[in-house]
Amino acid sequence: MTKFSKLSLQASLGRIYAMVLRYCYLLRSSWPRVFELIYWPLVQMVTWGFLQSYLTPHGRPESLSSSAALAGGILIGSMLLWDVLMRGQLGFSIGFLEEMWSRNIGNLFMSPLRPFEFVISLMVMSLIRLAISLVPVTLFAFLFFGYNLWELGLGVALFIASLMLTAWAIGLIVCGIVLRHGMGAEGLIWGIVFVMMPLCCVYYPVSVLPAPLQVLSWALPPTYVFEGLRDITTAHVLRWDLMAASFCINILMLGLAAVTFLLLVESSRKAGTLMQMGE
Q1: pLDDT digits (tens, 9 = 90+) for 191-244
Q2: How far apart, in Å, do the first and last CA atoms of the chain sit?
Q3: Are the CB atoms for 217 and 223 separated by under 8 Å?
Q4: 53 and 128 in contact (C-beta within 8 Å)?
Q5: Tens digit of pLDDT for each residue in 88-133?
Q6: For position 56, what pLDDT does the model report?
Q7: pLDDT value at position 257?
Q8: Helix residue ranges, H only, the chain
Q9: How many other CB atoms are found less than 10 A from the CB of residue 4?
Q10: What is the per-residue DSSP string for 102-156?
Q11: Is 25 exposed, middle or buried, given 0-12, 13-18 or 19+ CB atoms closer than 10 A?
């Protein structure tokens, strides 16, 4: 590596670090932002935990009770992994929205900051936000309901990695759309993941869907994650074929999303929408 390349890499890392530091300062300066990261996942976890308690009352035959407990565990695990996908996408997109809300996005794209550096900083920030959200909630799930997500071992690491790739791909596309079409498209950031939820088969197997929808479902990488969760919970087997398929689709999606984002950025520059932040 030449001296010029090293200096360029250092400058690039410095810009990424500066953006991450900026978002960390924003997060640290507002306790409601941190509270919101934990509050909603905790509410969902408690709701599903009480459902598990209802499914496993005392006095049932042991076989029925154990089956219900297993089903309840799958529900809590599915909820926690679904929250990884949702929080990962929102964690990526909210950093972008912060720039839109403060009318700073045009300044960023006129600065030496390059689009890929901006994207990497958003990815890093989404991981930080996810850690703030996921770690306490999984701890509460264990303390209150005896469900330990981390006992899945390597499986949970692969599940989270796959879901984060999906979250970043979705985040890139919706942020590009908002950049090109203005804040009138902001609703996509908050709702697009929920459109996918029925097809991702978060709480039920793919087999319950009609045949045409099953084809569409298998085209979505989160489907493989939730099918894998059910297999590793019930049969204690990590399905490597499902994980391989999930990562292959994710890599394709992320590449297409990156190209789409760059095209939308270039289109925004030509259309002059970088400086127009209205509806």
Answers
A1: 888 888 999 999 889 999 999 999 999 999 999 999 999 999 888 889 999 999
A2: 46
A3: yes
A4: no
A5: 999 999 989 888 888 888 888 888 888 899 999 999 999 999 999 9
A6: 66
A7: 95
A8: 3-28, 31-55, 62-101, 105-110, 115-145, 154-181, 187-200, 211-217, 221-234, 240-271
A9: 8
A10: TT-HHHHHHSS--HHHHHHHHHHHHHHHHHHHHHHHHHHHHHHH---GGGGTHHH
A11: exposed
Both tokens of 206, joined, read 């793919």
Residue type, 47: T
**Residue burial 76-95, b: 16+ Cβ < 10 Å; e: rest:** bbbbbbbbbbbbbbbbbbbb
CA distances from 23 to 28, 84, 187, 218 (A): 9, 20, 22, 35
- Separation of alpha carbons 4 and 10, rounded Å: 10
Predicted pLDDT at 182:
79
Which SS3 state, helix, strand or coil, does residue 78 take?
A: helix
Number of neighbouring beta carbons within 10 Å of residue 73: 22
Reported as a single tens digit per residue, the pLDDT across 164-175 is 999 999 999 999
Token pair for 232 = 């590793």
Token pair 């390597």 in the structure block, residue = 154
The two three-digit tokens of residue 162, written as one number: 């796959």
What tokens were used for 11? 């400058």
Q: Which two tokens stand for residue 74?
A: 């799958």
Neighbouring C-beta atoms of residue 75, cutoff 10 Å: 19
- The pair of structure tokens assigned to 81 is 């992994």
User: 272: phi > 0 → left, psi -120 to 50 → alpha, else beta; which?
Assistant: left
